[in-house]
Design goal:
Length: 686
């Protein structure tokens, strides 16, 4: 560890922190839970241990801002250590690695869980790399207990059994949860006794309302942290000298936010020196941002959140004060936890907020909370939800849409920068704005009732405002048009398919699949059943040998049956009624097992229950199918025609709640990769 840190920081001597000392003496194959204060060097300790593991590493953050920050740090470390393969980053704003294919990836928990659960377009390829990875979970206290944390535990339950390793890091975890996770996964639990900075003294107090005279007359730099943008606007309006202010929140356009973050680091970062700036921010600076001020005013929040905010006060030593005020918290945080936090503050006004006090209050306030939400009974109750595949129930309630302001909505408007807002706010905006969306490549006015979460909408900007505090509603105003996006659009325009013979594609998939399985040795099940898996994988498009698929409405295959062909406009219900993946799975079901049958059935997407079943209406094989299968080497008899066959969610369709989900996820992700590579290989020869 000493030599490792000396190399990272370019120094001849280094003094290990408490957490670094303990990590350096651990066997490299241990899973670890670290409870340590902000600035204790746990990131470098976790990085060191994860590199000893070898293999793929996912560094997982709860928020994209934190992911971006740690990504730059790890890239620098990797470069110093001379690694040829750098880190990539993947989240909703920076999409370098959509399928998490790189060996070292910084990402968010949303991306990881969506991949593991098979939620989203081509999510299985992402999921394949999730189950092949080791993990560093940072700032896990920000995982929502009722959803994100429970689903993470379900994932770790499955991956722990197959030997995936992981590190969990936090500065705020109660003893109950540490014991629960530590015992469940046989983790080495490290709780540091000493604060990370010894010459630091921060006091904490609670006030009902802000003292504006004290804020405006304060000569040094200070931070005012608000729970909502509305609260932030109210604070900003009370500042006598707005030139002192830096505003930071999630409602700034990307270019403006980058500039605000640059100023934050300039005036509040390490080595920034004395100045009179006032940072008015929302929770985006709460964790992971390496900034500090001697005084912070914080809208009241739960104890774990408050400790994270304390990490931005006198961060590198000296004296500081954290002044909590009664702000907006209803609907933002768990009210019971906030009220208990207020009670603790009132009983201990101006107490020194030491590491020991922080751990004590976390235990007193959060032990009952986590006992209620995280226990064996709650975990078992949560497991059936994995079958349903509801992102809002399993990951978090993401109910946002993207808004673009343009007084002349057009197709080009969608190249402009966007702001994310809650869909309920869009409903209010719609009262004075027409909403324009893209539908099959064309822009048209869209009623609010047809807007879905995640959609991008263009408005003219009536009764809206964009200024230094970001985008918001403001009656009587007309919002300025949003600028062109400064983020390059790297999305590839997929070329149309060529006519690709079915047999060439099937044999290519078979060969590529075999090569991948032999190279990766994923599990005992895969190794034992490799020959059968490879044979079935090559037949995944067997259902395309249906007479309607090969007929004039679609492939119009006149010489040999086709696997792919130039796309045609037509009646999409034909595809729905004669789903080739469903036909393939039905035909192969007698010759395979539950996992492999589902690999074929779900090779384009996950089937998520809608309360009915997956229905196969009818099919009839083109008579040329026998010649194809003879060339392929498959001689088992097939039922040439059938109708009205169902795949039920209860008995036939695998979900994350099933024991074989991890093997399925690996196999279907590998098949999707092989399918894409085979298309490129075969069509490159045509």
């Amino acid at each position: 560890m000493n030599q490792f840190l000396q190399t990272l920081f370019g120094v001849s001597e280094v003094k290990l922190t408490e957490v670094q000392q303990k990590i350096s003496h651990l066997p490299k194959d241990r899973n670890v839970l670290i409870l340590s204060s902000c600035g204790s060097g746990k990131t470098e300790a976790a990085y060191y241990l994860a590199l000893q593991w070898g293999g793929r590493i996912l560094y997982i953050q709860p928020q994209r801002t934190l992911a971006t920050s740690i990504y730059e740090r790890l890239k620098k470390y990797h470069s110093i250590l001379g690694y040829s393969e750098s880190w990539t980053i993947q989240h909703s704003a920076l999409q370098e690695d959509p399928f998490l294919t790189n060996r070292y990836v910084v990402t968010t928990i949303d991306q990881v869980l969506a991949g593991y659960l098979g939620i989203g377009v081509q999510a299985f390829m992402k999921g394949k790399h999730v189950v092949q990875s080791h993990f560093i979970f940072d700032e896990i206290q920000l995982f929502e207990p009722g959803k994100t944390l429970k689903t993470t535990i379900q994932m770790l339950d499955a991956l722990y059994k197959r030997g995936n390793r992981f590190i969990i890091m936090t500065a705020t975890m109660p003893e109950y949860l540490m014991d629960f996770l530590g015992q469940r996964y046989q983790m080495e639990v490290i709780v540091t006794k000493q604060p990370s900075v010894k010459n630091r003294k921060v006091t904490v107090q609670y006030i009902e309302s802000l003292d504006w005279a004290a804020i405006n007359n304060y000569p040094g730099k200070q931070i005012i942290l608000c729970n909502t943008q509305k609260e932030q606007v109210e604070v900003y309006q009370k500042i006598n000298d707005p030139t002192r202010c830096i505003i930071l929140n999630s409602k700034l356009l990307p270019k403006d936010r980058e500039e605000a973050e640059r100023k934050v680091l300039q005036y509040f970062g390490k080595g920034s020196g004395e100045n009179n700036k006032t940072l008015i921010s929302t929770q985006v600076i709460e964790a992971g941002m390496d900034i500090s001020a001697p005084r912070m005013y914080s809208s009241i929040s739960p104890i774990d959140s408050l400790i994270q905010r304390d990490g931005r006060v006198a961060r590198w030593g000296g004296e500081g004060e954290l002044i909590c005020f009664k702000g907006d918290y209803q609907g933002v945080y768990d009210e019971e936890v906030v009220i208990k936090t207020i009670d603790a503050l009132k009983k201990n006004q101006s107490i020194e907020f030491t590491w020991d006090i922080q751990k004590q209050w976390v235990n007193e306030i959060l032990n009952p909370y986590y006992r209620k939400h995280i226990n064996e009974r709650e975990i078992k109750k949560h497991k059936p939800k994995l079958k349903d595949g509801s992102r809002n129930e399993l990951i978090r309630g993401i109910e946002n849409v993207n808004i673009i302001v343009d007084p002349s909505p057009s197709f080009r408007s969608f190249q402009k920068a966007a702001i994310s807002v809650h869909i309920n706010q869009l409903e209010k905006i719609a009262k004075s704005n027409q909403l324009y969306g893209l539908h099959r490549g064309e822009i048209r006015e869209t009623p609010y009732s047809e807007i879905n979460v995640g959609d991008t909408i263009v408005i003219k900007g009536n009764d809206c405002l964009y200024d230094e505090v970001g985008f918001r509603m403001k009656e009587g105003k007309v919002c300025v048009p949003f600028p062109e996006s400064h983020v390059a659009n790297n999305k590839e325009i997929r070329a149309d398919y060529k006519e690709e013979p079915w047999i060439l594609h099937a044999l290519a998939v078979k060969d590529i699949m075999k090569e991948k399985l032999e190279k990766e040795h994923f599990s005992e099940y895969v190794i034992k059943n490799q020959d059968q898996i490879v044979e079935i994988a090559g037949l995944h498009d067997l259902g395309k040998l249906d007479v309607v698929w090969q007929g004039p409405l679609w492939a119009n295959a006149q010489s040999v049956p086709l696997a792919h062909f130039p796309l045609k406009k037509g009646n999409p219900s034909i595809f729905k009624e004669r789903n080739h993946a469903v036909i393939s799975a039905h035909l192969l079901r007698p010759y395979t097992d539950f996992i492999q049958m589902n690999m074929v059935l779900q090779h384009h997407k996950r089937f998520i229950s809608d309360g009915t079943c997956v229905h196969l209406r009818e099919y009839e094989l083109d008579q040329r199918y026998k010649q194809c299968l003879d060339e392929y080497g498959f001689s088992k008899p097939l039922k040439e025609r059938d109708k009205n066959r169902d795949f039920t969610y209860e008995h036939d369709i695998i979900t994350p709640a099933h024991q074989g989900w991890v093997e399925f996820l690996y196999l279907v992700g590998t098949l999707m990769e092989a399918d894409i590579e085979a298309i490129q290989q075969v069509q490159g020869l045509l």
